[in-house]
């Protein structure tokens, strides 16, 4: 069982990543609250032992306050409406939550010819604004996890670019398996690591052409078509995970992206 000073974790929301995370946390002995917009999903979560709530992000009501009666909040949303985060913030500040894990994206960085670490130049992504709004708050401590593209389970990389015309085939791929996302979140909680920001991406960065061609062949779908004549060869970035591995002493479950395709 997971040994932690924290007892309750709320996961907003329980989608493709969040549901698997909630189940994993439950298995490790946490009391887990999970939010979903779907009544069917709520029933499924309840059956698995998760304290499930049917909530939208903008539902700033008693149910949301009950959901936020927790030690830790994992804010795992694809919503990019900054105003909704502004409206949510006072409710979070007034809640018992003392630790926030904010799931962000390596899309916050500008393209770069140099490897991209946590101090690299940021883009004008809305995620930058969301991070800035939510962090450095006296009411709770935040750790930001910037995930690269997610895969695993039924999310097969072979489908991502299948049959599409693709430029910059030699650009490096930045992806992370769902298993690693879940384990990294567990390590943040277990090791009590807060007020940090980490890039979360696999160790290897094969080219788009090599990776997605192999991925499509493995699941027997149409191959991507790589246009070698067009595109900007410098319009890419290679995300480094060195800080994460060093700070958490973390070893990736799926470190090699090409090897992970055959699992």
From TrEMBL:
Annotated GO MF terms: aldehyde dehydrogenase (NAD+) activity
Assigned GO CC terms: cytoplasm
SUPFAM superfamilies for the chain: NAD(P)-binding Rossmann-fold domains
Protein name: SDR family NAD(P)-dependent oxidoreductase
Highest rank taxon of the organism: Bacteria
């Amino acid at each position: 069982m997971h040994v932690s000073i924290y007892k309750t974790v709320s996961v907003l929301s329980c989608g493709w990543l969040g549901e698997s995370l909630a189940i994993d946390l439950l298995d490790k002995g946490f009391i887990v609250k999970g939010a979903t917009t779907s009544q069917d999903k709520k029933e499924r979560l309840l059956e698995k032992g998760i304290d499930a709530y049917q909530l939208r992000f903008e539902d700033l009501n008693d149910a949301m306050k009950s959901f936020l009666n927790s030690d830790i909040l994992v804010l795992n949303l694809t919503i990019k409406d900054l105003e909704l985060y502004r409206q949510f913030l006072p409710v979070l500040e007034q809640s018992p939550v003392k630790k926030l894990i904010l799931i962000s994206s390596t899309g916050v960085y500008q393209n770069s010819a140099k490897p991209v670490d946590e101090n690299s130049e940021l883009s004008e992504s809305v995620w930058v604004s969301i991070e800035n709004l939510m962090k450095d708050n006296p009411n709770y401590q935040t750790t930001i996890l910037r995930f690269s593209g997610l895969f695993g389970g039924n999310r097969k990389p072979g489908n991502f670019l299948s049959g599409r015309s693709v430029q910059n085939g030699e650009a490096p791929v930045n992806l992370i398996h769902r298993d690693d996302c879940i384990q990294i979140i567990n390590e943040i909680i277990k090791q009590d690591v807060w007020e940090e920001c980490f890039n979360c991406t696999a160790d290897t960065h094969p080219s788009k052409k090599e990776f997605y061609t192999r991925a499509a062949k493995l699941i027997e779908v149409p191959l991507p078509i790589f246009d070698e004549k067009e595109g900007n060869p410098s319009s890419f970035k290679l995300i480094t995970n060195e800080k994460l591995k060093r700070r958490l002493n973390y070893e990736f479950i799926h470190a090699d992206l090409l090897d992970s395709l055959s699992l």
